[in-house]
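Allow me, if you will, to draw on your knowledge of protein folds for a short while. The matter concerns a single protein, recorded as an amino acid sequence and a row of backbone structure tokens. Kindly check, if you would, that the fold set down in the tokens agrees with what the sequence suggests. You will find the record immediately after this paragraph.
***
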Amino acid sequence: MSAQPENKEIKTEEDQIINPWVVQGSKDHGINYKKLVDNFGSELISPELLQRFEKLTGKKPHPWLSRGFFFSHRDLNYILDLYEKGEKFYLYTGRGPSSEALHTGHLIPFIFTKWLQDVFSVPLVVQMTDDEKFLWKDITTEQAYSYTRENAKDIIAIGFDINKTFIFSNMKYIGHMYENILKIEKCVTANQVQGIFGFGESDNIGKYSFPAIQAAPCLSTSFSHIFGPKSAVPCLIPCAIDQDPYFRMTRDVAPRLGFPKPALIHSKFFPALQGQNTKMSASDPNSAIFLNDTPEIIRDKIKKYAFSGGKDSLEEHRRLGANLEIDIPYQYLNFFLPDDQKLAEIADKYSRGEMLTSEVKEVLIDVMTKMVVKHQVARDQVTDQVIDAFLTPRKLFF
């Protein structure tokens, strides 16, 4: 199996570790996002920026913006400038297909990206990094590509417009991007890659080349069938903040190649059922609600594994209430319960001890079960022919 990167994590005085492969918050406080923004050099999304977004688009910010889950950005004002002037840009996001089934945390960037696509009416490219998963994990290229197709089915089931959306496998599409990959590789030294990503002498050479592959979709000529061979169209990348190191590198390189810097909008991490200091993992079935879980499994997981911020005894809980900052049932509702008034009511009653953890878990079981079952019904409608259509290079309409 490939060796993991060596000793180049982003650490704070609270000993949190954040990189594209490891997300670990401090034991007592979880992820310190303010410190992370300071370390990465991005900007917090301000109320003024959200007001401008609403004024220009005529749409209220997505609840994940107003609730602070998408919380950080690079050059989002620039994207709004383009929209205000009627100029083109596109969306770029991706998925590392490491297993057949996605968990609910994997849905978050795609649900949000679909909302952005609907608001701005712009094209979207989705990179499936099956090459990365082959390089990092003990799987075959055939397995990696099969995961791409299975994961694409879940992405398509979210409801993306086929006329505006292109999904591609790196292993199958890389020839179209290869000229741009070469140009990026020539701009970045091995020392820089080691400094950014922590690769060491024991890492295979494929890992050293991969950052240029993830950077290439930021250059619009990687998609000449969409934008033309001489284009320089800007892009906006919705992603979790652990992916930012790839695009900090890209933002340095792109202007040197005659392209605009990619803009980004960062999300926080969706926590594991067992606690808020990590994100969910496809390799631990009890850490997450998976999109192929049955209603019975969903109920069992939430009841057994969802970490409670309630107190140890009923008497103490009634007196002191729950700690919402560490309570996983409440945190999940904060993501997936769309009713702001109901969420505020739960927060008030639970934090004052009027609601018990068991009651909040029942609300969460209902919300998660309905969401997963709805997704499963939509996924069942995605045939191999539909997957092939999304994965075929073609002109998009926007």
User: Anything to note?
Assistant: The first strand starts at residue 10 and ends at 11. The first helix runs from residue 33 to 40. The radius of gyration is 21 Å. The chain has a mean pLDDT of 92.
